[in-house]
Amino acid sequence: MKKKIKETPRESFIDFAKAVYPFLEFTPFHRTYYTILDAFARGRIPKLIVSVPPQHGKSVGATTLLPAYMLGLDPDMRIAIASYSGTLASKFNRRVQRILESREYGEIFPDTTIKRGTKPAAYIRTSDEVEIIDHKGELISVGREGSLTGNRVDCFILDDLYKDAMEAQSPVVRENCWEWYTSVVRTRMHNTSRELIVFTRWHEEDLIGTLSRTEPCRELRSLKDIEAIEPDTWLMLNFEALKASAPTDIDPRAEGEALWPEQQSRELLMAKRRLDPIRFESMYQGHPSSREGLLYGDNFREYELLPRDVVRRASYTDTADAGDDYLCSVAYVVDTDGIIYVTDVVYSREPMEHTERLVAAMFAANDTRLAVVESNNGGRGFARSLQRLAPKVRVEWFHQSYNKEARILSNSSTVLHTIRMPHDWAQRWPEFYTHLTTFRRLFRANSHDDAADVITGIVEREVTSASVGWQRLCWL
Q1: Neighbour tally for 88: CB within 10 Å
Q2: What's the CA gap between 174 and 171, in Å, rounded?
Q3: Residue 181's pLDDT is what?
Q4: Angstrom distance (rounded) from CA 281 to CA 258
Q5: What is the pTM for the complete model shown?
Q6: Which helix (H) or strand (E) holds 346?
Q7: CA distance 272 to 279
Q8: CA atoms within 13 A on the CB side of 372
């Protein structure tokens, strides 16, 4: 059997990083991240966007180690690092310089050297610019809105062009950032220039959001996608702190699994999400949304105790349409004033043979008397299974033929007026809570509409004129 030849630090970005930063921890996420950065360094990816949660090693890889590695591979390369301030960009530049003058780096890339002290006198070395001796390469740092007059750039690395939420929420700052990007960054590029954008997301209209709307973009789901990418197309990769999207070859984590559990555990991340689910979805999950564009936001009314006078105990269930959708089943009671109190929720992407038992158990725990199931997408078979598992509950099914978007949007005010949630619903059903409070008015911008669909269905049944026939089926 032919023995595999071990890669050297020159041939592998991961091995290079280990050589110059031996203290680094390489989890499966970091190995994937550095493998993709390696493909960028070698020109296999010309335009790359990566969004990473805070405190996950984003800048160490992309803005500190990567420029040093690329200058080693090509000492004639001209690289520019940009960030929200010149001070931060200079900090990155100084870190790269310290790597370039280290003994470990010299052993890997002996041809890439920089000025030491005052020698050689003809070369530049400041905190904002350093030149490679006997080559054309250089590393420049610039703050957002800074100037790059006269400089041709072979590779731009843009790391966090917004300082914080206040800046990202400002339309003026976002517009100025876009103006700087188009008038400075793009004008310093040539046919073979490369761009890397690494951000923690703050707002849906930040630079990444604007580029994804105005230029061709493709989600990076497998390393094979790199070979098929067109030159003018951005490859986009979003690392969620808590896995919520479907597994891919790039990110095969199971649902709910933390990205770097040794540093940010699932429990810690769940606590952060409870504090501010909208901010968490943006910064940690890479799914930003402006509060102004939310359909419900955090405007749901909450309750401590259920009413004494209950006229109905019911539930509404919608089965999953596809593999990435959620089965959503909500148990509730209605009081004499027609106010609807949500008492329990099953919100899961598990197979039906598992969720049908969860829903039946929910019926028993909440003394549900009548259950309605949408018969679309296998719902009729699910309803029959529920009837078998919960024989004391009357299970009905019906076909939902009305347009989902129109239903959800037109009933949104009624939902907020009549629905009451338990005071601890964010802790009890975190994904259900997040998907409702971050649901956006721009319907196509939502990844999941299952929770909003079911809450709307309950209101249609209990409040609108169509509820007359429904109420005749209900009993205590």
Answers
A1: 20
A2: 5
A3: 94
A4: 14
A5: 0.71
A6: strand 340-348
A7: 9
A8: 22
